[in-house]
Amino acid sequence: MEQQVLVILPHPDDEAFGVSGTLAKLLHNGAKVTYACLTLGEMGRNMGIPPFASRVTLPAIRKKELEASCRAIGIQDLRILGFHDKMIEFEDQDALNASIDALLQELRPSLVITFYPGYSVHPDHDACGAAVIRSVGKLPRNERPVVHCVAFSKNCEEELGKPDVTVDVKDFLKQKMESMQAHKSQFQAAELLGRKKLNDQEIRRRFGTEGYWTYKFES
Q1: What is the pTM of this model?
Q2: Beta-carbon contacts of residue 175 (< 8 Å; ≥ 6 apart)
């Protein structure tokens, strides 16, 4: 059983769609979960439907949405690291590495969850995953946590194969749906669910499993 899990993702709402069910399940099973979110998604284009945010107010709104999502999942340890949205690949690499290194040293997680670099569509996703892999890869082999990666590029299964870890989260769909719906300004939940309300069977089919690739370090 996992004791300490560290989740490192770049944007508010990244946790909701890919990993929220897994995190709720880990918490239910007794793990401690720390979520380090690199940015506040302040450059997001979406302002709500109908719009209720502006470029000025969006960061504060997204912070509140992130906190609400974490409450829905059950996460109590949220760290907001203060990097710049849509700029992760251009951030000072030493500063980014240092932030991740400090979390690894403080928490000594047995499991880290992040994006798979090169297979996660958004440049921030890929840069975040690459930074995590760099930091974990510097640790002695016997001190490295397992790293589970989320990937969803069109070619990910063609090049990586099927996810080697599949988590059944059907018992935690309440937490997952509430996590997604917490991010109201981004309206992905509405887009994802469609205009009609999904029935329980459709929700279980679409959202009932979460898949990961275990990162294989070369040395």
Answers
A1: 0.94
A2: 20, 21, 24, 72, 73, 74
